[in-house]
Amino acid sequence: MSIRADNRNARRTARDRRDSQGRRLQLVDIENLAGGAGLAPDEYCRVWHIYRHFAFATRPGDQVVLAGSRRTVRAAAPALFGEPVQWRVRDGRDGADLALLEFADVSHAARRFSTLVIASGDHIFADLARAAGAAGMRTHQVIGRGYASIDLWRACDTHAKLRLGAGRSTSSEWTAAA
Q1: CB within 8 Å of 157: residues ≥ 6 apart
Q2: Which residues pair with 68 in a beta bridge?
Q3: What pLDDT is recorded for position 156?
Q4: Distance between CA atoms of 32 and 144, rounded to whole angstroms?
Q5: Do 137 and 107 contact (CB within 8 A), yes or no?
Q6: Cα-based distances in Å from 58 to 51, 61, 84, 89, 133
């Protein structure tokens, strides 16, 4: 490799490191935060509002990815219209989790972001959190109504618990009240 190529690589690495300061990749399992699938649109909106305004305000350069089943996305996406998020949709057991894991590329993320936020309590994300930490990223877990895996808890550097209360309205209740 030539000196010129080495300099170009060094500048790119320094730029990547500088640009990634403070940027966060936020992976949000909206079903886990809200406490399940099939909730009313206003409940997903409320959970998102609490997450965004009290747990993690989105900053320029952040990337926010929400995941859920088709049923959840049909209810939540219209309520969150205009929010700066990307959606990943997958049905089935652990569908939202698997959709987020398929999206997450730790080596790529570590070059672009300083922090990985995992908004879920599911144990399936523990290996991702450990890999992100080993790649030099800070890891933060946000827990909603869903349960928190001890393995994931231990794999993350810091944690937050959303105060959502016990209330949980279903789509059918919302439809009946509408």
Answers
A1: 133, 138, 139, 140
A2: 89
A3: 96
A4: 7
A5: no
A6: 10, 8, 8, 21, 21
Nearest to 92 by CA among 69, 117, 75, 110: 69
pTM beyond 0.85, yes or no: no
- CA distance linking residue 112 with residue 61, whole number of Å: 9
Under 8 Å between Cβ of 22 and 114: yes
Other residues' Cβ atoms within 10 Å of the Cβ of residue 152: 24
Task: Please tell me the distance from the alpha carbon of residue 99 to that of residue 94, in angstroms, as a whole number.
Answer: 9
Query: Which of these, 5, 74, 62, lies nearest to 28 by C-alpha position?
Result: 62
- Give the 3-state secondary structure of the chain: CCHHHHHHHHHHHHHHHHHHCCCEEEEEEHHHHHCCCCECHHHHHHHHHHHHHHHCCCCCCCEEEEEECHHHHHHHHHHCCCCCCEEEECCCCCHHHHHHHHHCCHHHHHHHCCEEEEECCCHHHHHHHHHHHHCCCEEEEEECCCCCCHHHHHHCCEEEECCCCCCCCEHHHHHHHC
**Sorting pLDDT into bands at 50, 70 and 90, what band is 5?**
very low
Which residue is associated with the tokens 């209330």?
167
